[in-house]
Amino acid sequence: MNKLQKWLEKWMMPIAKVLEKQKHLQSIKDGIVGIVPIIIIGSFCLVPTGIGNLIGGGVSEWVNAHNSIITLPTYFTTNIMSLYAALYIANSLAKRYKIKNVLVGASAILVHLILSVTIGEDGGWVVTYLAAEGLFTAIISAIFAVEVMRLCSKYHLTIKMPDSVPPMVADSFSILIPLVIDVVAATAVSVLCQSVGGTVFPQVIMNILAPAITSMDSLPAVMIVVSLTQLLWVFGLHGAAITSSVWAPFAIANATANAAAVAAGQAPAHVFTFGFYYGFLQVSGSGMTLGLVLLMMFSKAKSLRTIGKVGIIPSLFGVNEPIIFGVPIIMNPFLMLPFVIGPVIVAALDYLAMASGFVGLPLWEAPGFLPPGFQAFLLTLDWKAAVMAVLNVVLMGIMYYPFFKMMEADELKKENG
Question: How far apart are CA 417 and CA 340, in angstroms?
Fold first, then answer.
């Protein structure tokens, strides 16, 4: 155990620290997480359509008759989610660079619009690539806009107004030169893509990423994501915050594709979605520690019993930082193995259960931070999914038990002197 811990400290810790401090990755994560509530709202507007298609008859007829009203919010939420992502990512990155100009987010949206929107023959906007298909373009647009602003500020290529000028007016002038650069560059790329490739920039990006998108929704990919996330937590780094900057755009795109299929009366096709990760693989938090918390509540060791009682309520709602940092699980030689290996096993079982059709696939996105089983059911409308989420916690509790008993014995020795 000690040899493994020393090996991980030597080789994994430096990499993990670099990833945690990487401004762009963390800003992407913030932006993707920021649009989740918007996606949930848009997804829930498709729920009546999905239920109507499942039930049929008069319910389906009523839903179809009122579909334009029921699904109206989706046009301004999920159908343009990449616009919100560009805004949130840009604002997050600007904050990390200590750029205070409030118009940076707007400049990212402008770049994204130029790259993603085409103008039809009738003068109307074609906004197909403002939905999930445009997420990666949103990431590029946001980073580009902020970096242009940062470099212009660094080399004094901005119009500086006197201190007496109101901040909003000063911001509008200081961003003028960076904005010109943004527009010229984005226009040049857009024209090049359409004249040479006959398509828009987001489609070029999607063509490049196609192999990665396909392979991400696979058993090996899910197991790798979970294992890396848990390993980072062992070192005291927020695993999900680091790894989600890579996998979340793929997972959200999968969820959006599932929701669109359900709305069209078709079957969903993807297992690995944002909701799948948090509704099944993060039940009660990273490492699915609710079973461990229950063991601690009835522990003979006073310290563990106290932490268990403090952590039970937050854990029920998916917040287990009091356990991770309170036990602590971080760098804990007793709990390291079940905390890292257990979720990987659970992820494999859950993925296989859904991929085989035994448990329903995610239909859309659903609210998180709910007790075990609730989010899983709302995601799939399948009672078996709710049972599977609860069984995940039970299985993890069984895996934790022998390691917990060793930790408890060690703790009792300390308490008894």
Answer: 31
Q: What are the residue ranges of helices labelled H in 45-134?
A: 47-55, 57-65, 67-70, 81-96, 104-116
- Nearby residues of 356 by Cβ (< 8 Å), 6 or more positions away: none
Q: How far is the C-alpha of 137 from the C-alpha of 394, rounded, in Å?
A: 41
Helix (H) or strand (E) holding 126: strand 125-126
By the 8 A CB rule, do 149 and 94 touch?
yes
> 238: left (phi > 0), else alpha (psi -120 to 50), else beta?
beta
| 126 DSSP β-pair partners | 118
pTM: 0.72
CA–CA distance, 304 with 299 (Å, rounded to integer): 6
Which residue has 């075990």 as its token pair? 372
Structure tokens at 232: 């980072």
CB 171 within 8 A of CB 163: no
Number of Cβ atoms within 10 Å of the Cβ of 355:
16
Q: 33-75: per-residue pLDDT in tens?
A: 788 788 878 877 777 776 666 666 777 778 778 878 888 888 8
Residue reference for tokens 């902020």: 146
Helix (H, G, I), strand (E, B) or coil at 326: helix
State how far the Cα of 413 lies from the Cα of 385, in Å rounded to an integer: 42
Q: What is the DSSP letter of 360?
A: P
Q: 258: closest CA among 121, 409, 363, 372?
A: 363
CA pair distance 366, 360, nearest whole angstrom: 15
What does the angle CA 256 – CA 257 – CA 262 come to, to the nearest 5 degrees?
A: 95
Among 141, 113, 116, which residue's Cα sits nearest to residue 128? 116
Q: What is the pLDDT of residues 258-282, one digit of tens each?
A: 988 888 888 999 999 989 999 999 9
* Nearest partner of 242 among 32, 7, 9, 4, judged by Cα: 32
Give the model confidence (pLDDT) of 188-203 as tens digits. 999 999 888 788 898 8
Q: For residue 119, is pLDDT > 60? A: yes
Tally of CB atoms within 10 A around 80 = 18
- Give buried/exposed letters for 311-321 (b at 16+ CB in 10 A, else e): bbebbbebebe
β-strand pairing of 125-126 with 118-119:
antiparallel
* CA 269 vs CA 122, 259, 331, 382: distances in Å: 35, 10, 39, 16
Q: Exposed, middle or buried: residue 222 (CB in 10 Å: 0-12, 13-18, 19+)? A: buried
